[in-house]
Prior knowledge:
Elements: H1 2-9, E1 27-31, H2 38-41, E2 48-53, H3 54-68, E3 72-78, H4 88-97, E4 104-109, H5 111-124, E5 128-132, E6 144-149, E7 152-157, E8 163-167, H6 168-171, H7 176-187, H8 189-203, H9 209-222, H10 226-230, H11 234-254, H12 263-278, H13 285-304, H14 317-328, H15 332-342, H16 349-355, H17 357-364, H18 370-379, H19 384-390, H20 393-402, H21 412-419
Helix pairs in contact: 1-11, 4-5, 7-11, 7-13, 8-17, 9-11, 12-13, 13-18, 13-21, 14-15
Amino acid sequence: MERDLMTLAAGRDDCPCGIPHHCDIRNILLAPGAVNRTGEVLSPWKKILLVADTNTYALCGSAVASQLGTSLQDTLIYESEGFLVPNEEAIDILMNRVQADTDYIVGIGSGVINDLCKYVSFKKGLEYAIITTAPSMDGYASVHAAMIIGGAKVTYEAHMVHTVIADVDILKNAPMEMICAGYGDIVGKFSALNDWKLSCAMYDEYFCQYVYDLIYDATLRAAPLGEALQRRDPEAVSVLMHAILAVGIAMAYIGNSRPASGSEHHLSHYFEVTSLLRHEPYFLHGIDVAYATVDTQIMREAILALDDPSPAPVIGDAERESAVRRIYGTAADSILTLQKKFGKYDSDLAGLIREKWPAIRAVLSEVTSAETIRGYMASVGLPMEKYFAMYSDKKRADGFFWAKDLKDRFTVLWVWYTLIGKI
């Protein structure tokens, strides 16, 4: 699998879409015992800052430190109760630990540690490596860093990881919740890919069939593995991690997250942001994505059931602003500004949907059914009952309507808002 991933990382100059595809990852180690090759792969660097949290350091921090030997300049271990949040405080802590002669950063962890190391290494002009501790999300190999700034989820352009070390012996023993999260993030590609194709049909957005097929094939290979993942089967974990890294490489090909992040991610971000604002519990990102994939597919199926694309009653600017402020609180101003710039509220979206209705129906009909996706999730231990217990009907209804405002990207959420309205 390492060889296949490195072939993908080498890129492609002859894609039929007409755009060369490149990826800056230089090393990918995906195998049992991969962490024992850390010293060999990172031998060119002599002033390395090691970054972890208390949990991830306990998994393999001592082994990595031993591998780095005298090249280990300093170690930062975040201590936090509950989830480590990639906010301003966490960024400042890491920024201040980078010394003038630090030449490389190595992170041990998953989503948050990866994003912090990616963001800070980019700001400091350094390369970084991630030693993955859980197959929990697809951002390991992406160029984006998702941070919580001012209480809102903000995705920054950063750079590609230099080295990924994915030790299957570590990954298979990750908390099952994190394995489920990675699986959920991959299942979410059924939705994300369809939203990409939908925006292409609506607005002639750039589309690459090669990248679409790459992600779709990885999703199809991983989706049936729920029961095997619950058994922590090493081969199943390898296939999941391969899919996670392949998706990250595909995002690098495009230069953004469009093929891998659509309405299901917008709903996931909505649950995270609103829960943080209200100090309420929420699921890990990928688990939210999986549940949101079911909800977005329910939306598609409801839209397909319409005989005619007649718009729902229009919501005025004042009522919309009031709803956004009620839901997003201190983050509302930035969200309102983003949507003003995006311009969809000022466009004749209903007219465009009517014009493109046959193409819209054709695209929406391609997605795997909500019932099938529910089955995938149940197989990995994520029945819908857990979702309904975590989030009230009111919270979900608000998300159906207003999660789209968090991003300047067209998805099925805009069609739902225009044609269906509230659940």
